[in-house]
């Protein structure tokens, strides 16, 4: 939810409030993440221009329901890529994420499917973003067999 004045605020029991990481080109990453995270219902919530940032680069906050949970900013991308896993209770979202991320320029790092090495219901897909970060969509809900 957004309070008066446009400052995003969240109240809830989430353990992880948000994550932020550097990317080589925030605009390129914005285009990638807008498409790749659309199946999760995530959009750009806020853009902070370079005139308002400490490092002089653009920052984007993405999320849903008015609260940004994933932030990225211009700067030198990390030398060690991160692994970011996004949860869903619907395997179709995993499939849609994978397709959207590839269409947006991501690189396949594991097609949608069950990863039994984790457990029998771990259904996931993996894509490298433009900076080589490993972005995962995962559904751990038990699969309903018809």
Describe the model.
This is Catechol 2,3-dioxygenase. Residues 15-140 form the VOC domain. One of its GO terms (molecular function) is dioxygenase activity. The chain is of the alpha+beta class. It has two domains: 19-74, 2,3-Dihydroxybiphenyl 1,2-Dioxygenase, domain 1 (Roll), CATH 3.10.180.10; 83-139, Roll (2,3-Dihydroxybiphenyl 1,2-Dioxygenase, domain 1), CATH 3.10.180. Helix content is 16%, strand content 32%. It is built from two helices and nine strands; from the N terminus they run E-H-E-E-E-E-H-E-E-E-E. It has helices spanning 26-36, 91-103, and strands at 19-23, 43-48, 59-64, 67-74, 83-88, 107-108, 113-114, 123-128, 134-139. Strands 5, 6, 7, 8 and 9 form a five-stranded mixed beta sheet that branches. A four-stranded mixed beta sheet has the order 1-4-3-2, covered by helices on one side.
């Amino acid at each position: 939810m957004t309070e008066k004045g446009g400052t995003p605020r969240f109240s809830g029991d989430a353990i992880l409030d948000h994550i932020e990481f550097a990317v080589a080109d925030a605009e390129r990453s914005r285009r990638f993440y807008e498409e790749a995270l659309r199946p999760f219902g995530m959009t750009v919530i806020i853009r902070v221009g370079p005139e308002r940032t400490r490092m002089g680069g653009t920052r984007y906050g993405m999320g849903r329901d008015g609260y940004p949970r994933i932030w990225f900013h211009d700067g030198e991308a990390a030398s060690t890529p991160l692994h970011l896993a996004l949860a869903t209770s619907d395997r179709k979202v995993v499939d849609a994420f994978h397709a959207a991320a590839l269409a947006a320029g991501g690189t396949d790092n594991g097609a949608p499917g069950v990863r039994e090495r984790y457990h029998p219901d771990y259904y996931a897909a993996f894509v490298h973003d433009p900076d080589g970060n490993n972005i995962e969509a995962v559904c751990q809900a038990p699969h309903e067999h018809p």
